[in-house]
Amino acid sequence: MRGVSEPYRVNTKSLDVALRTAKLLTQKTKVRYTVGVSTRNMLMFDFDISKRRLRFSRRRVNLVVMFTRAFADMLACDATLYLTPRGFHAVFWKRVTEEEWRNLIVSTIEVTSKDERLRSILDVKHLEAALRRGYVTLRLNQLCKYADIAGGEVKVYPECEGMIAYE
Amino acid sequence: MVKKRGEEVESPMVDVEDVPEMEYWCILAFYDELTYAKELYVTEEERQSAFTDLLKDMLERGIPFWYTVLPEKEEEEKERKGERRE
Asked: For A43-96, what is each residue's pLDDT tens digit?
């Protein structure tokens, strides 16, 4: 495969094509490719906690849960927190239009610039990149469901909680 | 949704309009090579992960989505190579 040297993104509506493409690109380049899910009709946040794998302070994990619950309350929807080796990822279960999606991200970035605690955990670059591309992507590999947030209640899954080595 | 290597994978479909068109050429460019790809790129970790639940939830809630193939983050790549050396 000539001309494949720079890492880039491939979008497809077929999971089969996505998996095969990731496999092929990994074989043909020096970069490992993974598969993610993309949308512009739902809000997804990245909380990159630490450079050290799965080592977080309880305070930071509590902050992530607190902010996810606050955003879910604001949006009047349920949310799910996923844990990966890269940190936490919040998914807010509410279908929005593309315009609403853009407005929500812009306002979230504005709020984050004024809130030091939120700024310390929320990956704003992820949101800015989503705005530039016109969609947000969540990587699917090594995804573990950490908590469900519904009606203000937080249900933490113990098997995922056990993966965290608290500092 | 994700099955054993070599098995067919059923995929939820979204409207073509929902996928950014500018990157479709990539799929076309790789079509011939993909025909010869024997194995699906699914690791044990991915099989055991919650991602099929996530996709199912998105489908059930009627949220349009598509799949994106993207490179590992640089720091992950370094970490992975470091682990391999160890």
From this structure: 999 987 655 555 667 788 888 999 999 999 999 999 999 887 778 899 999 999
Q: How much is the average pLDDT of A113-141?
A: 90
Q: How many CB pairs below 8 Å do chains A and B form together?
A: 176
Query: In sequence order, which residues have a C-beta less than 8 Å from that of residue A160 and are 6 or more positions away?
Result: A83, A144, A145, A146, A147
Distance from CA of B85 to the nearest CA of A (A): 16
Q: Return the structure tokens found at A55.
A: 């080592």
The answer to whether position B1 is within a domain reads no
Domain that holds residue B81: 16-85
8 Å CB contact between B69 and A21: yes
Is residue B59 in some structural domain? yes
Q: Is residue B7 part of a domain?
A: no
Tell me if chain A has a CB within 8 Å of the CB of B53: yes
Amino acid at A138: L
Q: What is the pLDDT of residues B33-82, one digit of tens each?
A: 443 333 333 444 444 456 777 887 888 888 888 888 888 765 455 544 55
Report CA torsion sign: B37, B38, B42, B44: negative
Residue A167 to residue B1: CA distance in whole angstroms = 36
User: Rounded CA gap, A19 and A136, in Å?
Assistant: 19
Q: Inform me whether the C-beta atom of residue A165 falls under 8 Å from chain B C-beta atoms.
A: no
Residue B20 lies in a domain: yes
